[in-house]
Amino acid sequence: MSDFSRINVATAHQLWQEGNTAFADIRDARSFAMGHIPGAVHLTDASLSDFLADLADAQPVVVVCYHGNSSQGAAQYLAHQGIEPVSSLDGGFTAWVHQHPEAVEQS
């Protein structure tokens, strides 16, 4: 059975800059629209199967929530679906926007 890791904002930002990692944002639609990591997918129950189908083999996934708590459960779920590597962003989007306000987009 696969597991997930927890990563800090600095590591996530480096992965984001490299461009090979999928970012899955599990916050509510309004929060996502108001600001999210550029390129992140708004992951919901409705979009989950498309998200999984679109992932490249062995493409890393970072799950993002508000503060890094709910993302751990979602990351564990994805790991149990065979997605690896998968990580949860410690501090969530709140920590991301605090450290990298320039790396936020609205939809």
From TrEMBL:
Keywords on record: Cytoplasm, Transferase
- Stated EC number for the protein is 2.8.1.1
Q: Key word Ribonucleoprotein present in the record?
A: no
Q: Signal peptide: which range, if any? A: none
In the UniProt record, does the keyword Transferase occur?
A: yes
Record domain Rhodanese: where: 17-105
- Identify which top EC class this enzyme belongs to: transferase
Q: Which domain of life is it from?
A: Bacteria
Q: Where is the active site?
A: 65 (cysteine persulfide intermediate)
Q: Where in the cell is it found?
A: Cytoplasm
**CDD domains the record matches:** GlpE_ST
Q: Name one GO cellular component term.
A: cytoplasm
Catalyses which reaction(s): thiosulfate + hydrogen cyanide = thiocyanate + sulfite + 2 H(+); thiosulfate + [thioredoxin]-dithiol = [thioredoxin]-disulfide + hydrogen sulfide + sulfite + 2 H(+)
Family annotation (Gene3D superfamilies): Rhodanese-like domain (3.40.250.10)
One of the entry's Gene Ontology molecular-function terms is: thiosulfate-thioredoxin sulfurtransferase activity
Record function comment: Transferase that catalyzes the transfer of sulfur from thiosulfate to thiophilic acceptors such as cyanide or dithiols. May function in a CysM-independent thiosulfate assimilation pathway by catalyzing the conversion of thiosulfate to sulfite, which can then be used for L-cysteine biosynthesis.
PANTHER family for this protein: FAD-DEPENDENT OXIDOREDUCTASE (PTHR43031), THIOSULFATE SULFURTRANSFERASE GLPE (PTHR43031:SF6)
User: Which family does this protein fall into?
Assistant: Belongs to the GlpE family.
The record, for HAMAP family, names: Thiosulf_sulfurtr
Recorded protein name is Thiosulfate sulfurtransferase GlpE
* Organism for this UniProt entry: Pseudidiomarina sediminum
Q: What is the lineage of its organism?
A: Bacteria, Pseudomonadati, Pseudomonadota, Gammaproteobacteria, Alteromonadales
